[in-house]
Amino acid sequence: EDGPLDTVGERLTRFLLGIWENPTTRTPLLAIVRSAVNNESAAAVFRRLVAAQLLRRIAGRLDLPDAELRAELAAAQLVGVAMLRYVIKVEPLASADVERIVERVAPVVQGHLTAP
Questions:
Q1: Residue 84 in contact with residue 90, Cβ under 8 Å?
Q2: Taking Cα atoms as reference points, which of 115, 102, 116, 113 lies closest to residue 54?
Q3: Domains in the chain: ranges and CATH
Q4: Residue 1 has what pLDDT?
């Protein structure tokens, strides 16, 4: 949350991948995501979690008229990576080194958040 905006993409990417990489937090996240796909109540929980814990904090730091959309696009990028890596387990993403993923994904997330 804190820190310069010019590194927010990397920090956010590392933070979210770190949560997914930790078996203690991955298990409940997998349950929530899997349920959210087929159950509107679970989807509402997921939306509230993402909106309250992630999107509002990020959008609040961006001094741009489309800050909410930018934050949602960044979140969509990261949720997509998480779905393919941890839920569907698509290779080579599923077994790729986390640092390599951060190298490739963080600049895209940064672009969503701060590019003109």
A1: yes
A2: 113
A3: 5-114 (1.10.357.10)
A4: 55
For residue 48, give both structure tokens. 């509230």
Most confident range, picked from 26-35, 49-58, 73-82? 73-82
Query: 4 and 12 in contact (C-beta within 8 Å)?
Result: no
Confidence band of 52 (pLDDT split at 50, 70, 90): low
DSSP label at residue 84: I
Give 8's Cβ-side CA count (13 Å radius): 25
Nearest-angstrom CA–CA distance, 94 and 88: 8
8, with CB counted inside 10 A (0-12, 13-18, 19+), is: buried
